[in-house]
Design a protein that fits this description.
CATH architecture: 6 Propeller
CATH topology: Neuraminidase
Number of strands: 30
Oligomer: single chain
Structural class: mainly beta
Number of domains: 1
Radius of gyration: 20 Å
Largest sheet: 4 strands, antiparallel
Distance between the termini: 12 Å
Helix content: under 10%
Strand order of the largest sheet: 6-5-30-29
Shape: globular
């Protein structure tokens, strides 16, 4: 059995490093349920005041309630947040938006109390009707709707659901399936429209990589094909940044890990290549923080799990490797900008060969 020691309490990096406490986790194949935080403006403070405290600092904070594989993070508007929380806590911190973590394998939901730095399990379940198997993906929030995709591999069909959390009944609505069956695709909400990008399907026992993309028309309940990617890919990461959709990394044919990055322009319905990442990545987290696009962790082109993070500035069209790596390597994790802080949580630490 493999063991890993890492910091249970906060570790601060400034001119020196202080370590407080440690804990052993027994299985490298299981998830890290600790998450990290990187304070906003540290990047700029580092340029101005070298000795400022917590410069470029990753530190450990409160753990999740149990193991979560491939966590899905959503920020719920404060007007809807009370349905996820316990009655005893409703009035204690629900003056702002709520960060929730969804475990699509178990259907469990956790919500974060920012002021007490603690996670709490919700009594709600997150599995749609006619749940088929454990392969399920979640897309972001469109007003009060969350979109969930559930693979029905036997029928080569992706079931699509929307969950309305604007009222306590949490109504599930079945939507039309994609035009093209796809697995391990990327999805994002942009201008109140859901986009699904890339992925793969199996034909004659061979994995066929996709460059096709679709968007959902809410009025007609149909999926509309849009411009194709320049490079077919799956297990890529996607986010909205500077008014465009950015997709980065992922795998292509023959399990080749990509470092290429593309952006989608809605007006011209076209994808264009931008400067590639410094490191090829898949199964990594991509998010926007401090005005930059951040790529965090993931697998490299040797299928080794990484500690590193890098950030992209659309003004200069350049990537910069962050000086401080993650405290622990991870893949299949999640990252989000919340309360002007960068949260990274969940994921596996193992390499492909382990």
């Amino acid at each position: 059995m493999a063991f890993l020691a890492f910091q249970w309490c906060a570790t601060y990096y400034s001119l020196s490093c202080r370590e407080i406490g440690a804990i052993d986790y027994e299985d490298l194949f299981s998830l890290f349920n600790i998450y990290f935080l990187f304070t906003e403006n540290d990047r700029y403070n580092n340029k101005i005041i070298v000795s400022a405290p917590k410069e470029n600092t990753w530190f450990l904070i409160s753990p999740l309630q149990g193991i979560v594989f491939e966590p899905n993070l959503i920020i719920v508007p404060k007007s809807c947040s009370s349905i996820f929380t316990d009655s005893l806590l409703k009035n204690s911190f629900l003056t702002e938006n709520l960060l929730i973590c969804c475990d699509l394998l178990s259907g469990n939901i956790q919500y974060h109390n920012y002021y007490s730095n603690s996670w709490h399990k919700s009594s709600l379940s997150f599995k749609p009707p006619n749940y088929v198997c454990n392969e399920m993906e979640l897309c972001g929030v469109n007003d009060s709707l969350i979109y969930v995709f559930n693979y029905n591999i036997a029928n080569n069909l992706t079931l699509v659901w929307s969950l309305d959390f604007s009222h306590p009944s949490l109504n599930w609505t079945a939507l039309k399936s994609f035009n093209q069956f796809r697995r391990a695709f990327s999805s994002v909400v942009f201008n109140n429209t859901v986009y699904v990008i890339g992925g793969y399907f199996i034909s004659d026992s061979k994995r066929c990589c996709l460059n096709s993309c679709e968007r959902y028309d809410n009025q007609l309940n149909v999926w509309v094909t849009i411009a194709s990617l320049n490079t077919a890919r799956f297990e890529a990461s996607v986010v909205v940044y500077n008014g465009c959709i950015y997709i980065a990394g992922g795998e292509s044919e023959n399990s080749f890990i990509q470092n290429s990055v593309e952006k989608y322009d809605l007006k011209s319905d076209s994808w264009s290549l931008v400067t590639p990442m410094t490191t090829a990545r898949c199964k990594f987290a991509l998010t926007v923080f401090d005005g930059l696009l951040w790529a965090i962790g993931g697998w490299d082109d040797s299928h080794c799990t990484m500690f590193t993070a890098e950030s992209y500035d659309y003004v200069t069209d350049k990537w910069q490797v962050e000086e401080k790596p993650l405290i622990n390597k991870r893949r299949n994790h999640a990252a989000i900008n919340f309360h002007k802080e960068l949260y990274v949580l969940g994921g596996l630490s193992s390499n492909l060969s382990e």
